[in-house]
Each structure stands twice: as C-alpha cells, then as structure tokens.
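Hi support team,

I submitted a single chain yesterday and got back a structure, but I'm not sure I'm reading the token output correctly. Could someone confirm the output below corresponds to the sequence I sent? I've pasted both exactly as they appear in my results page.

Thanks,
R.
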Amino acid sequence: MRFLSLPALLSALCFAPCAMAEPASRDMEQSLAKSLQAVGNNRLDVALNEVDSLLKLHPNFKLAQLVRGDLLMARSKPISNFGDAPNAPADRVQDLREEANARLHRAQQQQPIAVPKYLWQLDAQQRYAVVVDTSKSTLYLYENVKGEPRYVADYYISVGKKGADKVSEGDQKTPLGVYFVDEHIPSAKLTDFYGPGAYPLSYPNEWDKRLGRNGHGIWLHGTPSDTYSRPPRASNGCVVLSNNDFTHLGKNLQVGVTPVIITNHMEWSDETDASERSSLLSSIEQWRNDWESRKTENYLAHYARDFSAGNTAFSDFAQQKRKVNSGKTWIKVKLSRLSVFPYPSQQGLVVVNFEQDYSSNNLSNRMLKRQYWMKRDGRWQIIYEGSA
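Hi R., thanks for writing in. Yes, this is the structure output for that exact sequence:
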C-alpha cells in the first residue's frame, strides 16, 4: 500500500454527495475527511472542532486521537504528515497511517450502482448477502429484493496481518471464496477482544479442502471495548468491524443461510455475466431433466472426470448411479431455493445451492444440496456435489 503524506491526502479528497444507508463507517470517514479539508484550508479551529465532535461519539477512535494531537501541534509548528509527535511508537503510528489511507479512500467512494458479479442468484430465504473486498478494507451488505441484490450499506473492516488468500493454519491471511455464516457466538461466551460477538464462517469450504487448504476459526467479529477500530491488516485472518458496525450488520445475518463472499478485488456484473448465468441455469435444468428421464449416461456426462464427492471419485460415483438407476421405473426431481455464486478467486467456478426433492418408485427424500460447476472448453460440468 502506498502511504500518502498529509498534503497529498488533502489534495486527493473530494466531497461529492454520498448516499448513506445508516449511521456507520461512512459517517465517521466523512467527519474525518472534513476535518482534514479544514486543515488544508488553514482553518485549524474548524478542523479541531470536527475531530472533537468525532471523539465525543467515539472517544476510543485512535485515528481521530492522532489527528487531534497533530492539530494541537500545528498551533506551534507546521505539520507534514500524520503522527509527527516525537517519540511516538513507530509501529502504532504506521498502523494508524494505514487506517487513514484506507478510510480516506473510502470517503471518496460513491454508493455502488452496479451489482457484484458474485451474486448471480439469491435464494428467497437469503434475505441479505455480504461481499468483502479485502483490497479496499470494505464489507458490502446487499438486500435480496425478489432474487436480485440491492445495495444497503458498506463498512470499514480489518483483515489478516499478511493480507488475503489463506492457504494454511497460522498464515495470518483471510481466505478468498464463497462461505456461509455457520454460527452466532454471543459476547457472553467470548472475551472482550471480540466485542459484541462473532459469526464463524464455513472456512475451509469444499473447494478449499480440494486444494489442500486448511486452518479454522475465520470469523466476523467486533473489537475490544477500548478500541473503536483496528488497522486494515490487523487480524489473524478474521474480518473485523467496529462494534457499532458489527451490531448493525448482525441484525441482517442468518445462521446457515447468509452467504459471505470474500474477494481481493471487487468486480461488477456486466452483460457477459448475464449470458454466463443463463448458460449455467440451462445446464442445471438439463442435468435435472436427464436424471429424471433416467438417461443415465447423459446424466453422468454433466460430471467432470475429476469430479469428487468427499472421498468418492467419478468412477465409483458413476458405477453407483448406473446400479441405482437400473432399478428405477420412474424418477421425479424438483429443485427449489436455488442460489448461484461465482467464485471470486477461480475463473469459471460457480457454487450452486438448492433444495432437492427426489422421488422414485422405491425411494423419496428431500435434502439441501451443494454443487460446484466449472466451465471448461465451453461447457459447464460438475466437479463437486454433496449436502449443503
């Protein structure tokens, strides 16, 4: 990350109107930016009043405390950068400079007008979806409006000390992928370090395991009571919000339901995505139809030769399906609650979830199923299948 000097930060700031859905991170960042703009206009008293108002709301906002200290020093000497106080701990000042860069860049961002390319289709029960952009220290919240995502809010976050793309236990990185909220842990069961609580995520997922990635304990959580926010890279891999933001977000999370997609560079939907989505949905319907029609070889052609379901490889899977289907006189397969999420760190990979209602002449069952479809040589194939 490139760290701007105070003059460079001031020249980079612009204050175009920004729609805010609720009083959260954006308000803090706008107040901070206004204070620095006043510094640029040599109106130090106005800047100090702005930052004092900020600290009245959140006295433990360490970045605002640093700005206030610089403003007080500016009465006696010019300031050229954040944290010019003598004998200040270099590592802590550097952390705050990183946070200043991230927050001031966020202050320039406008409300998204496009849809993230990772939300092709939401199940009706998924009231909200979360997309995390680690490169912008931002978590986006989207509401499900008749199957289509609509922007609600975005929040400043901290991620792993070593950045993103987790591979192994203890690497202090945040994973990239499609995950789901697994659990809610209330504050009463945690130390103060986690703030109002935590939402563990489903890392490692099926794709992570296939790639040999390991580790555990990737959570969404808050901050200690004496800390308003943490630097952009400060966790051991978790996604960390201020306690106020965490509380706002938590009202919208559903255990076992809400998707959390983590990327290191946000991409937005375009016409290509609409075409690819349509193509995949057609492939899913053809897979269902081939299964229901008892065209076993056509059905198996939807599965890649490197397909796996846990420890079951394609050859064993195909042999079992041929045996089972030979005893069927009729099959009915209905799919509902379909959700579709392109994978952020793997081109052509899509996570598909649905409720499967299966019935035949000798068996009936209903289950939540998850498939990973990958596009290869112009056609979609299933590379993983299992219960969700």
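A quick pointer for reading it: The chain is about 30% helix and 25% strand. Let us know if anything else looks off.

Best,
Support desk
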